[in-house]
Amino acid sequence: MLEDSEFKPFNLTDFTVAETLPEDSESLSATQEDGQDGAEVEESEISVRLASFKPLIIDEQGGSEEFDAEGSTDLADRRTDAEKIHLSQDFRTADFFQENSLLTNAENFAETIRDGAKLYKTQLLTKIEEQATDSKRIHQNTVADNHEAEEERKKLLSATEEKVDEIKNEAFNEGFEAGRLKGMQKRYDEAGPLVL
After folding, report:
1. Residue 75 near residue 68 (C-beta atoms within 8 A)
2. Among 22, 40, 73, where does a domain finish?
3. SS3 track for the chain
4. Is residue 123 part of a domain?
5. How many Å apart are CA 103 and CA 96, to the nearest integer?
6. Directed axis angle between helix 38-51 and helix 22-34, to 10°?
7. Count of domains forming the chain
């Protein structure tokens, strides 16, 4: 499918490089002075710009041949990656700017944020530990209260059972004594006429 596509990547050979000639710029200014139509002037101006387009060729090391040839960069001034890393590690804006603002003291601001976050974390962990110990203490108190309540319930049950047994015994003894006396009286009453 890609082979059938009409779109292909560009190469540097796809563009023609034409140097602008001073004659073209003179003829352009001459046509402007003659008072030709503005659209024709713009078209010729665009064609001059397109003709003067020259692609920038960059070598494998990342530098432009033309840029180096013009003397804009010094090869002796370039630093190695290790030097750049060392410089970037030692760089701090606080060394250059002594103003207290977000932009100039970014490292200090970030450090205070980190310190604040650590402090908040320790306070939060302390609070969580305190609440955990409080919940353990409350649980232990609840277990102790439940144990005491269970002991109290058992004591009340045993006291109630003892009271019930005592009431039963008293009732039995009262009934027994009353029945014995009544039985004796009945016997005397039955035996009384026999004796006289």
Report:
1. yes
2. 73
3. CCCCCCCCCCCHHHCCCCCCCHHHHHHHHHHHHHCCCHHHHHHHHHHHHHHCCCCCCECCCCCEHHHHHCCCCCHHHCCCHHHHHHHHHHCCHHHCCCCCCCCCCHHHHHHHHHHHHHHHHHHHHHHHHHHHHHHHHHHHHHHHHHHHHHHHHHHHHHHHHHHHHHHHHHHHHHHHHHHHHHHHHHHHHHHHHHHC
4. no
5. 12
6. 170
7. 2
Residue 121: inside a domain? no
In the predicted structure, residue 121 carries a pLDDT above the cut 50? yes
Supply the range of the domain harboring residue 164. Answer: 133-196
Token representation of residue 125: 């962990």
CA separation, residue 57 to residues 8, 49, 71 (Å): 20, 19, 16
Radius of gyration over alpha carbons of the chain, in Å?
56
Q: Considering the chain, what percentage of its residues have pLDDT values greater than 70?
A: 54
For tokens 């530990």, the residue is 129
Residue 115 within a domain = no
Q: What is the pTM of this model?
A: 0.32
- Contacts (Cβ under 8 Å, ≥6 apart) of 107: 92, 93, 94
pLDDT tens per residue across span 71-90: 444 544 577 888 877 777 77
